[in-house]
Amino acid sequence: MIGNFEGKHILHGNQFSNEDLHKIMQVADEFEQGLQKGQTYDLMKGKVLAALFFEPSTRTRLSFESAMLHLGGGVISVASAATSSAAKGETIEDTALTVSQYAHIIVMRHPKIGSAAEAAAVATVPVINAGDGAGQHPTQALLDAYTIKKELGTLDGITISLVGDLKYGRTVHALIELLSLYDIGFRLVSPAGLRMPADIVARLKEKGIEVVETEDLVEAAADSDLMYVTRIQKERFPNVEDYEKIKGAYVIDETLLDNAKKGVIIMHPLPRVDEISTSVDSYEGAAYFRQVRNGLYVRMALLALVLGMK
Ligand code: NCD
């Protein structure tokens, strides 16, 4: 994209350059400082964001809506497939064409891989992918990168473990593609049946990035600066028995922290089920609620850039 976000669709973790990420972080930081000083904004006066969520969400939808409201814009919203015409069999394309008439930007979450790209192909306004099934979740990746930079001070020369459901987890798919812009070593920690898709691993290795796939959480924790933990994506399993066999495979608790690299940062896109013990919440390296807050700043930055206000 190289610095010019205006009018662009945001669909995939691999669509950004170093300059793009730098720009987003710079604008997000500006909003962070501003909000902390109590500053208010009217940059988006007269602009409308449509949030189309055909899958459950708390953080992603509310942070986009909050971001738009903090910028002085307005929001219209579909919060479940059941209450929209999707339930009557309307296609993604027809929905996108319709909503383009009402809003200046569309944020969409949908269970089908590639759905956001399908909407973007026909929409007359920018489309932001807020999660397309087990595919991608690029805005989560942006806020995750912002959080990593803030927590560790750098995105270069570090080792990160991605833990849990690497097969169906769209957050880790987007994050690893985005972070492949940097000099980062990865430990991919998952049960054998939930490994990172082979095409993503192959792309990283082609770029010369160190990727170690393992089932051993303790070993990975010992040499990681940061652990990015994910929920096993129950809703994506073809049958519930397979989920039951795997759930609870990895848990971050105090014993694990005792054996982890000193000062390790723990992140999670949330919601968590049981993969991080609540006793870890008071650990100073537990960054997942700071990560939530960063989502607001990064989404404000993204909206401002895509709508050409920054
Ligand atoms: C994630 C998602 O929806 O992919 N949540 C989020 O957006 N913060 C992760 C998950 O559901 O496990």
Question: How would you portray this structure in words?
Answer:
This protein has 310 residues and is of the alpha/beta class. 39% of the residues lie in helices and 15% in strands. It is globular, with a radius of gyration of 19 Å. The model has no long low-confidence stretch (mean pLDDT 96). The strands form two sheets. It has a five-stranded parallel beta sheet. α2 crosses α11 and α5 packs across α6. The protein has helices at residues 18-36, 59-70, 92-100, 115-122, 138-152, 170-179, 198-206, 217-222, 240-246, 254-259, 288-306; strands at residues 48-53, 74-78, 105-110, 127-132, 158-163, 184-189, 211-214, 226-229, 265-267. It binds N-carbamoyl-L-aspartate (NCD). Residues 59-60, 131, 137, 140, 170-171, 230-231, 269-270 line the site of N-carbamoyl-L-aspartate.
